[in-house]
Design goal:
This protein is mostly helical. The chain has a domain of 101 residues: Cytochrome Bc1 Complex, Chain D, domain 2 (Orthogonal Bundle), CATH 1.10.760.10. It contains seven helices and no strands. α3 crosses α6 and α5 crosses α6. The protein is elongated, with a radius of gyration of 22 Å.
Amino acid sequence: MIKGIILGLILGVLVLAGGVYYYFASGMAPAATADPMMPFEKKMANMALDAHIEKQHIGESPIPADEPNLLAAAHTYKTECAVCHGLPDHPSDYVNTMFPTPTQLFKGKGVTDDPPSESYWKAANGIRLSGMPAFKDKLTKTELWQVSQLVAHANELSQSVNKVLVPDDPNPSPLKVHP
């Protein structure tokens, strides 16, 4: 009797594993950016990401969310982040072409409800299978913390910081040369 139960469990696990393998190997699993999500894909990805960040114990930001740091962050954000995450009132051109879509950090709540340490970890380390690159080798720790403070406080930025976060004019007027 016990042998039958054990054999049944082993066969069940093998059939399940074979079914999952077939699902992916046969091309049935979604692979294109326009395909719908797999069942539980978002929940499992977020669960793994949250657990990994929690395990790292990043701690509080050593950088205050003051005007000089937010101004510096605005310049860094505009150069390094805006192409995917957009600017205030100017969503990214990539928002509908990537999967998962990059969070538009100045539209809706963005990540203002996330602690700066979470945004720091994501910017420093990137997120697998999302298109979010790691910036720890490109930006300094100070720049990463500044940008993390910027996005955490995106809904309460000063006018001077918001002035930095406007798109550059793609068609500047030509210079007039006077003879």
